[in-house]
Design goal:
single chain; about 375 residues; alpha/beta; 6-stranded parallel β-sheet; two-stranded parallel sheet; 13 helices; binds zinc ion
């Protein structure tokens, strides 16, 4: 920027020099021309009587100024006047050039100031955005956030019947909700979480996010209120993701990326989540397509994505429709004996009973001494 100003200032200075020279040159010419014409006039004057009388008249006019007639004649006076005019003209020309240089300078300074102000405004708005981000992360304290890689490993070891490395005697529960957002259920879930002052991790379906502006605002609310977001594919379409019961790596990866982009569109390009959950869960495909599941796992780890299954559930997507009390009983049954409980629930359309059961489920888990965490 300063280089630009220097360059433009140099240019202006050069231009003003040229202008001044030109103006002066013209002025000089004018002076010279008037001198020439004076000389010729003088020559002519000496020849004509009429002119002589003119000279006399003017000489008389000069008399009141008490200028010696012999030394300065009328033509000399004209010459002086013309020279004065030429000098005045030159001074005015220089003044105009200097004036324009100052005006241009002021304009550049104003422009620079405006740019600086704009830059400050941008950094201010960034600052306030950071404040919002900080607020969001303040409403969840850092000890409340678990690394997704830790949970992935914990669940894998537990599934294989091994003692998980992360077992430390501390009871922790992770509430997770799949298939949202929905306009009907997710707001009720968020209300319940807020009322109980706990947070959850929402595994979102990209297609559902993009469905409506209301849903996009729900995603913003999830984050603003201190919850975490995971990726549950874009289409949630088994035929597309697992054609003929085999994992299609390309389709799965592009579906995860598509949801990722939908999230960035709403939450900003800096947003990313490392938590992914397959429709049907990792354990389903580990059994049905072990080779495909292994390749998938490698591809995900390359991008620092981690698969998060569950070890407890409300059964709100399995079997017959259950009421709130039945859902709570399923949670109690499956959480029982778990040191780290990752609970699967759903907040999509038709899951009103889940939202209804949630306050009671949270109260029960609190009574059991569970600490509530989210995963990132
Ligand atoms: Zn699902």
């Amino acid at each position: 920027m300063s280089d630009d100003i220097n360059n433009s200032m140099n240019y202006i200075n050069e231009t003003s020099k040229i202008n001044t020279t030109n103006e002066t040159g013209e002025a000089d010419d004018t002076v010279r021309n008037s001198e020439n014409s004076e000389n010729s006039e003088i020559n002519d004057d000496s020849k004509t009587k009429e002119d002589n009388s003119e000279t006399n008249e003017i000489s008389e006019n000069i008399r009141p100024f008490e200028i010696d007639e012999d030394e300065i004649d009328e033509e000399d006076l004209k010459g002086i006047k013309r020279r004065k005019f030429a000098i005045l003209f030159t001074i005015m020309a220089i003044a105009i050039v200097i004036g324009s240089v100052i005006a241009v300078q002021k304009f550049i300074i104003n422009k620079q100031t405006a740019e600086t102000l704009n830059a400050n405004e941008i950094s201010d708005s960034k600052g306030s955005k950071n404040q919002i981000d900080n607020k969001a992360s303040n409403s969840e304290n850092s000890s409340e956030v678990e690394d997704v890689a830790f949970i992935e490993k914990y669940l894998n070891q537990q599934m294989k019947g091994q003692m998980p490395d992360g077992a430390d005697g501390k009871k922790v529960v992770y509430l997770t909700f799949d298939d949202g957002p929905s306009e009907t259920v997710t707001p009720q879930v968020l209300d319940a979480l807020k009322a109980e002052n706990v947070h959850a991790t929402f595994f979102l379906v990209g297609k559902a996010i993009d469905e409506s502006e209301v849903n996009k605002n729900i995603v913003k609310r999830e984050i603003t209120e201190g919850n975490a977001i995971g990726n549950h594919t874009y289409s949630h379409n088994y035929k597309y993701l697992y054609p003929n019961g085999k994992i299609n790596l390309e389709n799965c990866m592009s579906d995860f990326e598509k949801t990722n982009q939908s999230l960035k569109n709403i939450l900003g390009q800096d947003f990313s989540t490392r938590a992914v959950r397959f429709p049907g869960g990792q354990m389903t495909w580990d059994k049905k397509d072990p080779a495909g599941a292994n390749a998938m796992d490698e591809a995900l780890h390359e991008k620092d994505y981690h698969q998060i299954d569950w070890n407890s559930l409300s059964q709100d997507a399995e079997g017959a429709h259950k009421n709130a009390e039945q859902l709570k009983q399923e949670v109690i049954k499956t959480v029982s004996g778990r040191e780290k409980a990752i609970i699967l629930m759903h907040d999509t359309y038709g899951k009103e009973e889940t939202a209804k059961a949630l306050p009671e489920i949270i109260k029960y888990l609190k009574q059991q001494g569970y600490e509530f965490k989210i995963m990132k």
